[in-house]
C-alpha cells in the first residue's frame, strides 16, 4: 500500500511538473518551435532548379533583381547596381562598399530593355542620415573576395512597387553597413520619379535592418516586410508605419540559419512568405539549409523557400524549397496572368562559380503545382528560344 501511494504521488508530481512546463512554454511562445521545417535541400532536383535555358536579360552588373508589371503595360526592372565606369584591378564591378544610387529600366516584353537612368542619387536626393559613410580599411575585401577601395555608402536591394489603392509609385531600399531601410515616393506620379523620402524616414530609417519589402493586400492595406521575420502596417497615406514592427509567426528550421531576401505575395487568397536560404553540403552527398558550425563559409546554392498562411501575421506552415539557385527574388504576374520570378546568378557558393557572367538580371517562368511554387521549364524554353530569335 505504501509503495502504491508513493508511485501515485510521484505520478501526480510528474504531471504537475509537465503542466507547469507546458504553461511556461506557452507563455514564452516556445511551443510553436516544437514543430520545425524540414531542412533538407533537394539539390540535383532539376524540376526545382532554375532551368539551364535561363539567360541574362540585361548585360548590366546587377544583384537582387526586382521586376514588376505596371498598370501602363510596361515591366519595370531595378536592383543593386554598381556605379558606372567604376573600375577595379580585377576588372569586376561591384557595390559592396559604394555606389551612386538607384537605376531603372522598362520593357514591353522583357526581351529588350530601355534605360530610364538613375532615378535616385545620394548627391541629389538623399537625406542627411543617408549620406553618412564609413571609411574602408586598406586592403579589405568583400565576402566574394572583391577589392574595396572607397567608403561604405551604397544603396542595396531596391524594389519598385505600384500601390494600386493609392495610385502611387514607391521604392523601398536599404543602405549597407547597418544603415537601415527606407521608402521613397514618386513626386511626379510616374515610375521614373523623381523620388523623395516619405515623412516617416526623413531623419531616420523606416526599418533598422536590410532587405525590407512592401506588400499591398486586397483591401489596400500596405505592409512593410522586414529582414527577415518582421512586419508592420503602414498608415493609410503611406507616410509612415502605423504600428511597431512585430515578429512573423513562422515554422523555423532547427537551428535557424541566416535568411534574407524576404518577399510576400498572395496565391488563392493565401499569403506566401518567400525567403532565401543558402544550401550547405553535408559531405555525404546530401545538402541542408542548416549551417555547418565548423565551416560556416561553406555554401552551395542560393535557394528560394516558401511558406504559406491564412493570416498575414502567421502562423506560416513549414517552408518548402521552391527554386534552387533563384534566391533574393520577387514574383510577379504578366498581362495574361502567368507567374514569373526574378534571379541574378549569384556567383558565391560552389554552384555559383559556374556562372559567366554572374550578377545579371534574369526572369524565370514559374507555376503553382498542387499549391506549391516551382519553375516552369516549358515556358522558360519557349521564352528564351523566342528571345534569342
What does this structure look like?
- The chain has 389 residues and is mainly beta.
- The chain contains four helices and 24 strands.
- The protein has helices at residues 2-28, 122-125, 128-131, 377-388; strands at 62-69, 75-81, 101-107, 114-121, 134-135, 151-152, 155-163, 168-175, 180-186, 195-197, 213-216, 222-226, 230-233, 246-247, 259-267, 270-278, 280-281, 287-288, 302-309, 320-323, 331-333, 339-343, 362-369, 372-375.
- Strand 21 (331-333) and strand 22 (339-343) form a beta hairpin.
- The protein is globular, with a radius of gyration of 23 Å.
Keywords:
mainly beta, 4-stranded antiparallel β-sheet, 389 residues, 24 strands
As residue ranges, the low-confidence spans are: 1-33
N- to C-terminal separation? 91 Å
Q: Could you state the CATH homologous superfamily?
A: Glycosyl hydrolase domain, family 43
Number of strands: 24
What's the domain count? Answer: 1
- Helical percentage: 10-25%
CATH topology value: Tachylectin-2, Chain A
Strand order of the largest sheet: 1-2-3-4
The gross shape turns out to be globular
Largest sheet: 4 strands, antiparallel
The CATH architecture category equals 5 Propeller
Give the count of helical stretches: 4
Radius of gyration: 23 Å
Mean pLDDT, rounded to whole units? 91
What class would the helix/strand composition place it in? mainly beta
Order of helices and strands: HEEEEHHEEEEEEEEEEEEEEEEEEEEH
